Amino acid sequence: MEKKHFEWHTIAGACRRLRGLVPRTTLIRMIGEKRLRVFAQRGHLFAFDPSELDAVDIRETGRRIALAAEALPSNDPGKMSDAELADSYANGGSEAQSSLWLEISKRSERAGQHTMREIADAMQRRAGKLQPLLDKFVGAYWNPQKKQTEPGGKLRK
To answer: CA 77, 112, 109: angle at the middle one, nearest 5?
Structure first.
């Protein structure tokens, strides 16, 4: 009979083994829900089957690749809707914005200010998503009544 080989890891070590694709809290939840089997435990060390860790690695890598593919805009700006074009412009870097500007200028000539309003709305949505993160890192928050940033421990959620 062949002896089973296990990899011994702490939760942090297993997270590193999975290249950080699965956070530690998720690993703990997976172990608790028995989606990731633990064959033995010694203190903080857990015995994992290497093939199961490889399967989790492959599954998470595939999921991340699929999510990244969904997030990518269409290569042809002419095939994008106005909202997609505006979101791509707002979320893109300077090179992406430069490549999209020709299509934006064509559409603004045809549709007037509609395309420019879409872009302005997309920029506001992006700023609205980033503001709580900026507030958290800076240690300040935006007070809408006073219309100014205030320091302190009151962070928006």
So the answer is: 60
